[in-house]
Amino acid sequence: MTPAIENFSKQYLINITEVRRLLLLASKAKMAKEKALMYTMPQYEKLALNAVEEFEKNARELGFGTVWNALWPRLVKSNQEIDLPL
Question: What is the pTM of this model?
Fold first, then answer.
């Protein structure tokens, strides 16, 4: 576990396992979005959409909103954007 993940977990009172799951889903969404951009095929676009929805659902369950400024998401809480711990 990295110090950034541990600090994030403590700051937002989230179990470390849940933080890791959130990071995994963010990575999957990023990779799916990259593939959709590279190949522009409907099945890749659907996979990307599903991956983004799964990440956003998990973030909501943890009390966060999301914003996508590029391929990597940021969390939103109390109108503040929060970087995911890496």
Answer: 0.93
**Length of the chain measured in residues:** 86
What is the rounded distance in angstroms from the CA atom of residue 74 to the CA atom of residue 17?
19
Q: What share of the chain is helix, strand, coil (3-state, %, to 5)?
A: 65, 15, 25
- Any bridge partners for residue 75, and if so which? 66, 82
Q: Is 2 helix (H, G, I), strand (E, B) or coil?
A: coil
* Integer Cα distance of 61 and 47 in angstroms: 21
Q: How far is CA 77 from CA 7, 10, 31, 63, 74, in A?
A: 16, 15, 25, 7, 10
pLDDT tens for the chain, 86 residues long, are 799 999 999 999 999 999 999 999 999 999 999 999 999 889 999 999 999 999 999 999 999 999 998 899 999 999 999 999 98
Burial (CB < 10 A; 0-12, 13-18, 19+), residue 12, is middle
